[in-house]
Structures are given as structure tokens and as C-alpha cells.
Design a protein that fits this description.
The protein is of the alpha/beta class and about 190 residues long. The chain has a single domain, classed as Rossmann fold (3-Layer(aba) Sandwich). It is about 40% helix and about 20% strand. The chain has 6 helices and 7 strands; from the N terminus they run βαβαβααβαβαββ. The protein has a 7-stranded mixed beta sheet, sandwiched between helices. Helix 2 links the parallel strand 2 and strand 3. The longest helix is centred in the last third of the chain and has 20 residues.
Length: about 190
Amino acid sequence: MKGTIVALAGRRIDAPGASSPRFPAANTNQILKRIREALSAQQASMLISSAACGADLLGLQAATQLGIKRRVVLPFPREKFRSTSVADRPGDWGAQYDRILDDVERAGDLVVLGYRDGDSSAYTATNEAILNEAGGVAAASGQRIIALVVWDGQSRGPDDITEHFLNEAAQRGLHIHQVSTLCPPAAHASVPQ
């Protein structure tokens, strides 16, 4: 089967008054366009990600626009995730999350890992589950996998969940495609693995 399984992770929209901009809300339309271009260029047949405000929901929106199958992996039940990782930042992310999750759940492509809120390993486990899901789908379909990382390119330190995803994808030998959340940089940067 032709196509690519895309495992995506990235930055959430900045909180109001963020001291170091990582994903300014003003960049959402441009980043949506860049993600859509990356999915098209990679001939994506499926996108697997979580559903936090910012990179995840923009990736899922781009996949919807392109008619690409979507699978969502959440660390905890969808209502809890919505309150802790979606509706806690500025913008209309909650309504978009609800629409996408309803569609994905109807299609049987919502994976809930069952971690408890406050479990420090929940988000890194979610990264690994996204990559595992991508690996399983790719093995079953004969397609290749790429990791799409949507971020500012700068580590926040040892607790940086996006950097963890990038490092985990690199350890698995995946091709990594990066989209910058800061504008106006070069449109895309690839890191061959």
C-alpha cells in the first residue's frame, strides 16, 4: 500500500504572558498550512497523534481537510484531557477537540491509555504509544513511518515532552520532519536519521 504513516507531536499554544514564546497563537493559521503541506508532501495515509491544543489539533485539522485517516492517543479519559491540555489555553480549541474526538471515536480510532491525572509518566508514555501505534499500522500495511515534530526547535530541559518524542523517534530510526512554530523561519527542516 502506498503512503506514509505520520506520527505527530509538538508544542501547545503558548499560555498568556509566556516569557519564552514557543508557539504564539498568532501563528496558528501559518502552522496549519505548513502541517497540511508536510502531510501532502509525505503522501500521508494516516496521522497518529494526541489532541492537545496547538500542534496536535492543527495536525488533526489538516488531516481532516486532506481526507487522511486519524488516530488519537490520550493518556486519560477525553474529558480530563480536554480540561488539562486543551481548554486551558486561549482560543476555541475545546469545540474543535470535541468535533474531532467525536469523529475519531465513531471510527474506532480513539486510544485511551488510562493513566491517572498527575502521573508524571503519562505524557512520555503517550509519545511512546503514538510511535507504537504508527509502527503497528505500518507493519500491517507495508507503509513507511515518519515523525512530524511541530515545535520551536529549542529544548525546555529534561521535562520537555516534545523533545522526548523527537528523541524517541530518532532512537527508533525514523525519518524526522520538523515544522517550526515560530514565524517566519524556513518553511520546513528535515533531519535525516
